[in-house]
Amino acid sequence: MLPRVATYDALRAALRHEEPELLNMAVQTCFDWARKDPDRVAIIDLGGDTRQGVTYGQLQELVWQVQAALRERGVRQGDRIGVLLGQSPLCAAAHIAAWAMGAISVPLFKLFRHDALESRLADSGAKIVVTDVDGADMLDGFDLRLVQAADLKTPVPQPVLQTEPEDPAVLIYTSGTTGKPKGALHAHRVLIGHLPGVEMSHDFLGQDGDVLWTPADWAWIGGLFDVLMPGLALGVPVVAGRMARFDVAQCIEIIREATVQNVFFPPTALRMLKAEQARITGLRSVASGGEPLGAEMLAWGQEALGVTINEFYGQTECNMVASSCAALFSPKPGCLGKAVPGFEVAVIDGDGKETTGEGDIALRRGAPSMMLEYWQNPSETERKFRGDWMLTGDRGCIDDGYIRFVGREDDVITSAGYRIGPAEIEDCLLTHPGVATVGVVGKPDPLRTEIVKAYVVTKPGVKVSATDLQSWVKERLASYSYPREIAILEALPMTVTGKVIRKDLKALAIAEAEQDPSQEQEST
C-alpha cells in the first residue's frame, strides 16, 4: 500500500517500484489473504435475492473448483481461457483460477454479439470459456468447451504455478475506438502496476470502512484492474452489483445497500447522474477515467457527491499512468492529474524527443502496467512505440506537472491555422441544459482546412436549435473554436464502454464534405 504522506513530491520520493523474482496474481488477489485472514470479506455479492458476503476462504474454494473443471478439460500453461460473465464471484474466480494454472484469461463482455465474440475467440485461440446459462446460449454453435456453475464439484486444494512477473496472464481487447480491436497481452506484473494509481485515485484506498464498486463491467480493464483485482489485493471488499444497463435509481440503491464508500464512475455515468440531478451521500472517494471531465462536472461532483472527483488516465495497453489525488493536490479542469509514481509520462515531438509545448502524450518503455505486446501482431506492436516511448495516441502538454489533454491524435482539428481539441468543445456543449450527448470532429473545408462540426443528441422533450448551441459555445470558448456546423441526431455511434466513436463521426463528416464541398451548413 502507498505510504501515507502529505504531498505528491513526498509520495514520488518514498515509492520505489520493485518486482519480486516470482509473482502470480492468484496469490496477490486471493491465496495470500485466504492464508492470512480467510474470514475477511472479499466480495459483497448483490446478484442474488439477498446480499451475500464472500470471504477470501470461500473465494479460494471457488477458485479450486474452477481449476479442477479446467484441468478436466485439458487446460495447460499458456492456454487462453475466455471469461464470459457479469459481475459475480464466479467471474473473479475464473480469472484467478486461470492465473493460478499459468493460463491466460480473456475477459469477454456480455453485451457482445456473435461477430464480436467470434473475432476475439478466434484471434486469441481460446477453446474454453467459463460462463453461465445466458452466456452458454450466446455461445451456442461455437466450437468450445464450457465451464458453468453446474460443472463445479467439491473443492480440492490445487497448487498455484510458480510464475515470473513477465509471464503472460491476461489478454484484454481494446474497445475499438480507433480501429479494429487488438489484444493487449499483459503479464503478472500488471496488477502491481495498477495499484499505486488506483490508491491515488481514491485518496489512499484501503482505509477502514472502504468498500469499492463500479458500474463498469469487469470485462474491461477499467472494471477488472481499476476496481476488482486491486480491491481484492488490498483487502478492500468489492461489490458485485452489475446492472443490465446504467440506471440512476438502481445505482444509488447499490451504493446504499452495500454501504459503498469508493466508486469508479465512467464519465458517461457521471453525466447521467448529473442529468437526473442525483444526490449521493456517504462516499469517501469517486474516481473517473476514460475521457476528461471539465470544470462544470468537477463542481457538480463536489456539490452532489460531496467529494472531489479524482480523474485518472491510462489505456488498455498501459493503464493507470496518471491520476489526480485530492488528498495530495488540487485538480485542474482539463487535466488528467499527475504521473503516478513508477511511471514516466512525457510529451514528445515527432522525433521522440521531449517537448515543453503540445505534442504526443507518451509513456516510457518498461512501465509496470505496460503490455507485453499486441497478441500475435508484431507490426502493430512496433507502430505503438517511438524509440523508448509508447504512444498513447493522445495529444497534450504538461503544465507544472499536470498532464493537460488536448485530444486524440486523429481527433485534433486544424482550422484556419488553429489547432483545436474537441474535448473542450464537447464539455462546453454538455453544460447546455438541453444536450444529452455530443461528439465533435473536424470536417474538411477548402478555405479553413477543417471546420468544427458537432453532432448532438438532445435530452428528451427538449427543443434546441443549432444557432442556440453555437451561441452557447461562442460565449464560453475562444471565438475560433465554436462549431460552424451542428447536426442534431437521435443517437451517436458509441463503443460498448460508452465512448463516442469519433472516427465514425469523422467518416460521416468527410462524406458530407464530399457531397457538398462548397457550403457550410447549420443542420438539424
UniProtKB/TrEMBL annotation:
Which residue intervals define the domain AMP-dependent synthetase/ligase in the entry?
A: 32-375
Task: Please report a single Pfam family linked to this protein.
Answer: AMP-binding
Instruction: Tell me which SUPFAM superfamilies the record gives.
Output: Acetyl-CoA synthetase-like
Q: Can you name one GO molecular function term for this protein?
A: acetate-CoA ligase activity
Q: Supply the EC number(s).
A: 6.2.1.1
Q: Which Gene3D superfamilies match?
A: 3.30.300.30, N-terminal domain of ligase-like
User: What sequence ranges are listed for the domain AMP-binding enzyme C-terminal?
Assistant: 424-499
Among the record's GO biological process terms, what is one?
A: fatty acid biosynthetic process
Which UniProt keywords are listed?
Answer: ATP-binding, Ligase, Nucleotide-binding
What sort of enzyme, by top EC class, is this?
Answer: ligase
Spell out where the chain crosses the membrane: none
Q: Which superkingdom does the taxonomy of this entry point to?
A: Bacteria
Q: Family membership, please give it.
A: Belongs to the ATP-dependent AMP-binding enzyme family.
Protein name per the record: Acetyl-coenzyme A synthetase
User: Its gene?
Assistant: acsA_2
